[in-house]
Amino acid sequence: MKTDKTFTLKNDQTGEEFTLPVLDGVEGPSVIDVRKLYAETGHFTFDPSYTSTASCKSRLTFIDGDKGILRHRGYTIEELTDNSTFLEVAYLLLEGDLPNKDQMKEFDHNITYHTLVHEQLHTFFRGFRRDAHPMAIMCGVVGGLAAFYHDSLDIWDPKQREISAHRLIAKIPTIAAMTMKYAMGQPFVYPRNDLTYAENFLHMCFALPAEPYKVSKTLSDAMDKILILHADHEQNASTSTVRLAGSSQANPFACISSGITSLWGPAHGGANQAVLAMLREIGSVDRIPEYIEKAKDKDDPFRLMGFGHRVYKNMDPRAGVLKASCDAVLDELGVTDPLLAVARELEKIALQDEYFVQRKLFPNVDFYSGIILKAMGFPEEMFTVLFAVGRTVGWVSQWKEMMEEQSLRIGRPRQLYTGPAKRDYVDIDKR
Ligand code: CMC
To answer: Quick check: is 230 catalytic?
Structure first.
């Protein structure tokens, strides 16, 4: 929102001053509007990993990293995980408000009746090695959806955008479950319309044609909560990737596929898989001090996975919710995981250590999610895929919000060139 406030920038070489407008959001820090900076001063700003740059306006998600607050469309994440369902949160993110009963019924119907994938898509899978990482398959198959759903690719038609959004939210669990089945050498399981979103996902992952599968309420409740916790997180790396891809007017399936590739990295969604690998490597509580020292050593690339966050300088509220449900899930499933003891002790020691305290490094959402997902029976390589299933709603909602803006301009960052200045070409014989 425009304000009367301004910011004055002075060029110390020439003495010239430039006045820049300041914009206010509803909450959070004000921003200095630098859109005309280059035209007026001949200078760009330099902010390579966007630590001080707001790349867009958004009405979806608010984070106060110092206070550990996460809200979607005004509702706290704790309120949503306590009272809502994943599909209701999906509607909230997409449409802006919680649905009434009729709206919820219609949305539920629209998602449920889009869960099947084109039968031809099954053959895609057979081109991949069985030991491929499921995220590699996800990138390819989700991007490939554009080859099947030509009738919803006109990004300028709001109805087609809506159908694409519903297709993506509906089909992503089906594709995710297929990647798991493919790796296990088991037949694909078709979706069931009588189940909830979370129940259907578990059914497609764990059912076998040879015997009936009953979805456990404990597991489906936990899965629903995990999906809500991952649904959106404002302008993180994968969401920014989706927006940047979408700014070139790429189709939505291609945009979401680009989000999946970005999420895969261990600094982002890949951390949940990396946490378990780390806990296993540490192995026992007595080895924790050794790993804490490794994490602090600047000559050692090792980092405590599941710790730290670009925005949260306090407990990640999602980690708080997951920590609380971790005990409940393990108790109800009767699982005793020795890695949980390592995780708890690691958290305790790190939270008291001067290095972590000074840098405000707290456990993030990935710290406990892997332990719950492992207890639920998911292979570790599926963890990041599950993150992608939840986050698809956020990616699609952010893409929709961007497409609904008055003017869509291609995203095009600039650079500080540090390569050679102009030089003359030398013939290969003389080099
Ligand atoms: N272990 C040890 N030291 C760390 C860690 C860590 N996990 N995270 C940050 N630091 C240190 C870092 O070395 C730096 O120290 P110094 O100031 O002495 O150079 C300081 O803390 C600031 O770190 P940074 O790298 O500038 O922070 P960033 O905002 O660029 O990175 C992060 C954020 C999440 C990539 C990073 O904390 C990290 O690599 N964490 C481990 C991976 C992880 O758990 N990722 C999941 C993030 S939450 C899920 C999601 O949203 O994707």
So the answer is: no
Ligand 1 centroid to 106 CA: how many Å? 42
Is residue 353 lining ligand 1, measured as CB closer than 6 Å?
no
CB-ligand 1 contact for 382 (6 Å cutoff) = no
400/407 Cα distance (integer angstroms): 13
What is the best residue among 242, 292, 364 to mutate for testing ligand 1's pocket, by most ligand atoms within 8 Å of CB? 364
CA of 351 to the centre of ligand 1 (A): 15
Can you give the pTM of this predicted structure?
A: 0.94
The CA distance from 222 to 199, in Å, is 10
Ligand 1 contact via 307 beta carbon (within 6 Å): yes
Q: Which atom of ligand 1 is nearest to the CA of 307?
A: 7
Ligand 1 centroid to Cα of residue 297, in Å, is: 14
**Annotated catalytic, 268?**
no
**Ligand 1 binding pocket includes 308 (Cβ within 6 Å):** yes
The two tokens of residue 55 are: 């790349």
Find out whether the beta carbon of 267 lies less than 6 Å from any atom of ligand 1. yes
Per residue of the chain (431 residues), what is the pLDDT tens digit?
A: 888 999 999 999 999 999 999 999 999 999 999 999 999 999 999 999 999 999 999 999 999 999 999 999 999 999 999 999 999 999 999 999 999 999 999 999 999 999 999 999 999 999 999 999 999 999 999 999 999 998 889 999 999 999 999 999 999 999 999 999 999 999 999 999 999 999 999 999 999 999 989 998 888 999 999 999 999 999 999 999 999 999 999 999 999 999 999 999 999 999 998 999 999 999 999 999 999 999 999 999 999 999 999 999 988 999 988 888 787 788 878 878 888 889 889 999 999 999 999 999 999 988 888 888 988 899 999 999 999 999 999 999 999 999 999 889 999 999 999 999 999 999 999 99
Phi, psi of 421, deg, nearest 5? -75, 175
Q: Which residues contact 380 (CB under 8 A, 6 or more apart)?
A: 273, 276, 277, 370, 374
H or E, element range at 105: helix 101-112
| Residue 362 CA, ligand 1 centroid: distance in Å | 10
Q: Which 3-state string (H, E, C) describes 232-255?
A: CCCCCHHHHHHHHHHHCCCCHHHH
